Inverse folding.
């Protein structure tokens, strides 16, 4: 619906030109005579910079024509010239609303006044009044297509698509309008009326032969209606016409939908070639511009603006960014956190030491001191804190929001989508170097990769370590590399048949900011314009289970949020849903006990290749001071 409103919104009062057109369109609908119509046009065409006495008088009259003046002598003015002049003169929709309300007191049956007020009420989202005035204008036989169309938009706001379709049809019977017809075709396809959508698309193709919209709509109607090959053939008919570029882009889209990757790639490259014909020297000119800039900061800033402008005309391909000088990979990290005071500081410090240069952290209304720790860390590291009070576990929305906040700065190349209990361990000296090594060894062009998938391993806690008064999360040094079977006394929670913790878990991703669209729930994937590949140079060590107090708090927070979340499927986060049910049954401690392993058990699992030792995070913290903030020290004490 927002797309419909954005594409078709018609404001007839914001500019003198549109107002003049509207007056001419309604010329036969009221009792104004020819002289009055001429006056209306003259009023609209007033040039405020002109020096003639007539123009000056007209401008002065427009300014002096106030609502109080209208009330004092309404018979002095013709309705349409008065509205035309005042609606242009008034600056806000509220002022226009008040003015028309006054006019309607004197001329309640004027169709033009009712129509204009209906449109303004629609813009102000005064839905009941908008319906009243628009329908009243139609009852008064206004014969104006835009009035019918605004009423159709009103029906769409009320989810009455059938009436919207019917009303747009009436608007088209009064005036052939490409935008109106395009919206009608989209609505018909939304309702799966593909035959009628095809018929009207061809009608639009006949009415507006130079408008590529109806070429694309007809292709969509054919494809969605099950005629996939006919849709492809239809687009192929237009690759030698003036619509070749849009035809190739549509071919790319349709072939991608039906899985024809090779054909899709060929069409995409043809579209690129056609578009670059208009800009054959863009690389040379860009490099020439760079050579004139002495300040590196200014050079990079201007080039980022230039690339963004270019991409409004060109697809997001590697060649567009080839003009930017090579520089070290810049990595940011997003973290969604709630009540993780025992681990959040270690997370930030570790990843900062491994080359992450900026953090954006969403604190989901923590109450255990996490927010205070983040505030203290922000004086030492580059941290952007977002406060999210909603306990609804809309993780995908919040993580995407964090990524977009970093993306618009243009200061970073990649972003890691992290949780507080995950530590991204690079094979190289830093995460940026690991990313660069992965791209070089991938076998693909580095600029064609936008998503890197990293292996994630659960770190298992040892009972002896937990009993120590000095226990900390990185004492967990056994990582699970193979599913460990359930014990007879374990409670079955899924069809995996594995231990709750000693099992393989899904990989998570880091993404190139350029081309990123959205991040999936759980950070397991992302919608991106570029391709995806594995990243063997980075391993994620996951510490989900630490103390029982921490585990219970996490289960309760997570479980309550999942109950409130109405967006996601009940099949999401199955393990937390199971644990929350067990908590409500008073049996969570039993489940926790099955995720705490004795020293003998871990030795046996190590000998059987279910686990391996990974001390890389532990070694880091054993050789680096954590530098606890005052808040962390207080809580630790």
């Amino acid at each position: 619906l927002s797309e419909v409103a954005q594409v078709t919104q018609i404001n007839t009062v914001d500019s003198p030109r549109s107002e003049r057109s509207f007056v001419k369109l309604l010329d036969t609908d009221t009792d104004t005579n020819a002289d009055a119509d001429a006056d209306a046009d003259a009023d609209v065409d007033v040039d405020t910079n002109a020096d003639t006495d007539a123009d000056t008088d007209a401008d002065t009259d427009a300014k002096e024509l106030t609502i109080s003046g209208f009330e004092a002598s309404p018979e002095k003015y013709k309705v349409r010239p008065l509205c035309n002049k005042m609606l242009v003169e008034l600056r806000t929709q509220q002022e226009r609303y008040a003015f028309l309300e006054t006019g309607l007191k004197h001329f309640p049956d004027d169709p033009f006044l009712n129509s204009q007020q209906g449109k303004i009420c629609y813009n102000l989202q005064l839905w009941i009044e908008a319906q009243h005035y628009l329908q009243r204008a139609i009852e008064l036989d206004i014969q104006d297509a835009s009035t019918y169309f605004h009423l159709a938009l009103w029906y769409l706001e009320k989810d009455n698509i059938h009436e919207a379709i019917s009303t747009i049809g009436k608007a088209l019977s009064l005036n052939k309008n490409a935008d109106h017809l395009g919206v009608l075709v989209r609505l018909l396809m939304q309702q799966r009326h593909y035959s009628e959508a095809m018929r009207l698309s061809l009608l639009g193709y006949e009415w507006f032969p130079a408008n590529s919209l109806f070429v694309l709509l007809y292709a969509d109607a054919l494809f969605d209606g099950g005629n996939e090959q006919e849709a492809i053939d239809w687009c192929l008919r237009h690759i030698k016409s003036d619509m070749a570029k849009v035809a190739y882009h549509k071919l790319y889209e349709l072939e991608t939908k039906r899985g024809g990757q090779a054909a899709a790639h060929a069409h995409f490259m043809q579209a690129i070639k056609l578009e670059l014909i208009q800009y054959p020297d863009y690389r040379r000119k860009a490099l020439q511009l760079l050579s004139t800039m002495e300040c590196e900061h200014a050079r990079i800033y201007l080039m980022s603006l230039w690339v963004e402008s270019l991409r409004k005309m060109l697809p997001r391909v590697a060649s567009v960014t080839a003009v930017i000088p090579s520089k070290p990979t810049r990595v940011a990290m997003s973290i969604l956190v709630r009540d993780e005071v025992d681990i959040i500081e270690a997370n930030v410090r570790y990843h900062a030491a491994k080359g992450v240069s900026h953090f954006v952290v969403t604190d989901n209304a923590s109450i255990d001191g996490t927010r205070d720790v983040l505030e203290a860390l922000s004086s030492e590291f580059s941290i952007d804190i977002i406060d999210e009070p909603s306990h609804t576990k809309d993780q995908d929305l919040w993580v995407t929001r964090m990524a977009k906040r970093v993306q618009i700065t243009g200061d970073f190349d990649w972003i890691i989508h992290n949780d507080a209990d995950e530590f991204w361990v690079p094979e190289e000296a830093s995460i940026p170097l690991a990313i660069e090594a992965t791209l070089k060894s991938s076998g693909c062009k580095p600029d064609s990769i936008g998503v890197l998938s990293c292996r994630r391993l659960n770190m298992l806690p040892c009972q002896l370590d937990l009993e120590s008064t000095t226990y900390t999360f990185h004492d967990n040094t056994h990582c699970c590399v193979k599913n460990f079977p359930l014990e007879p006394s374990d409670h079955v929670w899924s069809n995996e048949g594995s231990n709750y913790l000693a099992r393989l878990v899904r990989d998570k991703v880091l993404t190139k900011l350029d081309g990123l669209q959205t991040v999936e729930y759980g950070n397991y994937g992302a919608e991106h314009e570029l391709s995806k590949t594995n990243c063997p140079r980075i391993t994620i060590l996951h510490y989900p289970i630490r103390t029982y107090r921490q585990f219970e708090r996490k289960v309760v927070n997570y479980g309550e949020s999942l109950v409130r979340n109405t967006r996601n499927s009940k099949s999401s986060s199955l393990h937390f849903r199971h644990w929350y049910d067990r908590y409500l049954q008073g049996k969570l401690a039993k489940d926790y006990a099955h995720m705490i392993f004795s020293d003998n058990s871990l030795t046996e699992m190590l000998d059987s290749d279910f686990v391996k030792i990974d001390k890389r995070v532990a070694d880091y913290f054993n050789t680096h001071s954590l530098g606890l903030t005052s808040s962390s020290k207080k809580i630790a004490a």
Remarks:
- The chain has 30 helices and twelve strands.
- The chain has a mean pLDDT of 80.
